[in-house]
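As the next step, I selected for study a record pairing a protein sequence with its backbone structure tokens, which the following lines show:
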Amino acid sequence: MACVEKAPATAEYKLLQLKKYLSGEALTAVESLEHSVEAYEVAKSRLERKFCGQRHQINFHLEELDQFPPICPENSKDLDRLADLLDVIVINLKEARRKEELGNGSLYMKVQKKQ
């Protein structure tokens, strides 16, 4: 945002700059776009949808939960890390209005598998 979006430049130039800052899958998502106002808007939308959107964040944290190692009863740090991760997941689900996944929903089922 600071280096591209808020810069005092045309959308065409911003797209050129954006491509310079990206690599990997993010660059692949926008590199075929020509340099125009419309293309810059599409590039922002693609990047938001693929990498920054609420759905992506929720899925990222749910995958983190899937990969979380078993907790040893003597290790309170692991328990704290798990509690922190669950806080983030619950907040993201509430903000996304996906409360059905709380309670006895899919998050509950994932946590039950960890035990």
